[in-house]
Every structure is written in structure tokens, then in C-alpha cells.
Design goal:
- The protein contains ten helices and 15 strands.
- The protein is of the alpha/beta class.
- It folds into three domains: 5-67, Nucleic acid-binding proteins (OB fold (Dihydrolipoamide Acetyltransferase, E2P), Beta Barrel), CATH 2.40.50; 73-231, P-loop containing nucleotide triphosphate hydrolases (Rossmann fold, 3-Layer(aba) Sandwich); 244-319, Probable gtpase engc, domain 3 (Ribonucleotide Reductase Protein R1, domain 1, Orthogonal Bundle).
Length: 328
Amino acid sequence: MFQQTKTGRVTAQFQHLYTVSIGENAYMCGVSGKFRHDAETERDFPVIGDYVEFQIREYDQGTIHRLLERRTVLSRAAAGNETREQLICANVDYLLITMACGHDFNMRRLERYTLAAWDTGAIPLIILTKADQTDDIESLIEDVTMTAPGIDVFAVNSITGEGVNHLRASIPSESTLALVGSSGVGKSTLTNALAMKPLAETQTVRAQDERGKHTTTHRELFQIDDFYVIDTPGMREFGLWDGGDHLDETFRDIETLAASCRFRDCTHLKEPGCAVQQAITDGTLDAKRYANYVKLERELKYVEKRQAEATRLAEKKKRNPKTASKRT
């Protein structure tokens, strides 16, 4: 027999099974049949960080009946040819874009994560882990700051604790953080360093290439003192689902240059008086950065086109009488 409906937070996710927590009490939950029937897309299902209404059954199990409104959402385009949004986490206040120093550092990947971060509604922070793997951390911080203007950058060594206290002091109480980044950049190690005790499982670094091993296999939310941390699995691909409205925030320098071009409809290819091409020529704009800007702009337009086509086909399917009769 069901008890009174309660409100809890999704603290772990295993496909369509969820751990829902109220304080220190946790319940393994699935969604109700009505919930599943009414859900039209993956966005309608709970994700790590969500608040839900659920009813508790026996043996610490429960059933989710309602998803409460989200403040922020991080998502990406699902891998493969299918036009589908894959949600990663919700109700995050700070998105920690985690990049490891050393030869695996990739500025173009950072630009992609930054663009996605601005679209969530959360505040992005850039965390440079394994700070001991570079001989000039100050120059790297300067380069990152130039690449991602307006975003605070923190350099940390999660093993020694260097820089971790500074990061902790910058986090307001009751905030929820989400760590995102590639496999092996040290997200789980950073989670443990923030907690000052083992919470997330970690693995050792491979000596031959200084890369960490993939550790986290599911998303999980940890409470650390008066704030919360979501540790996510490393993502080999991060296909953009949205972000066109925030392209200018990620590439503010390019947008400023473009506004100075002689022609308003400048394509930044061969037109005379192109401020973008002039900046590339004189070295004030990295040609690789501009190339990535063009690549991401094209990707977003392509995704937008596919989304519009998918929406059109879905609406056509709803209007089809044969389809409708099968559903009744």
C-alpha cells in the first residue's frame, strides 16, 4: 500500500531506475506506468539532479509520479545518426568544465564544452586538473582565459590538494556542481578532494601516456558539507544539441572583430576590409580558433535543421489517423 507522496532528489541514475534521496534516506525507484505513458521524449524522464514527487513502497523502494520543474539542464546530442537529445543532469548551479593539464589538453574541446555550458543556464567554471603536469601553469591559465572570456579558471592538484581550498571557498552554500569532461581528466579524484575523503571511485594513471583511466560508469550526486557535486562519466563525444544563442559568448573576440568588418554581410573569406582575416594574418586571432568557430556554427545549424525535420515528422505522425487509431 502506498504511503503519502513525498518530494526527493534523484541522486543516482541507472538507465530508467533511479535512487531518490530525502536527507540520508535513499529509495530505489522506477517511474509509474502513467508517467511512462505520458512521457513523449527523453527530456520528460528524470535525470540526475532532478526533484521528483514519489511514493514509497516497502523495502526502501518507490515509484516516481511527477517530475518537478527544472532550473537548469545540461544535455547533448545523442551519439549516432538519430536526432535525439540526451540529458546529462539538471538543477545545476555551477558547471565545472574539467580539463587535465599536460599533452592531452585540447583547447578546441574546451571551446565546445564552454559553448554547451553557457546554454545550460548554470555558471561555468574551468578547472585545470593535474596542474603538476605543466611547467608553466600561469601561461596556460592566461591562454584559457583568452579562449573562454568571462569564465573563472582554477588550477588544482587533487592529489596534493593544491588549489582545491580556493575552489571550495568560491562555491556558495547549497549550490550544486556538475563535473564534466573527458575520461581520465580526474573528475572523481577532484570530487574526493573537495570532500576531503573518498566518495567516488578512482583509478591510477597510465604511466606510458599520463592519462587517467575511465572510472565513473554512471552519474551520481554526492553531498559534501553544504553543497552537492554530480560526478559524470567521461564523454568521448559531446555533440551540441543547442547553443546557437550563446555562440557569441564563447567566441566574443570573433564576434567583436566581425562587427568591425567593412561589409556587414562579410563572410570572412576573401572580402577586402575583413577584420577577422586581418586578425588571423597579424596573429592576434588563432586560425585554429576561428576554424573551430566556423565548425561549431555549422554544426549548430545542421542540428537545428535536423531538429526541425524531426519535429515536423513527429507532428505529421500525430495527425495521421491510422497512427492515432492504433494508440486508442
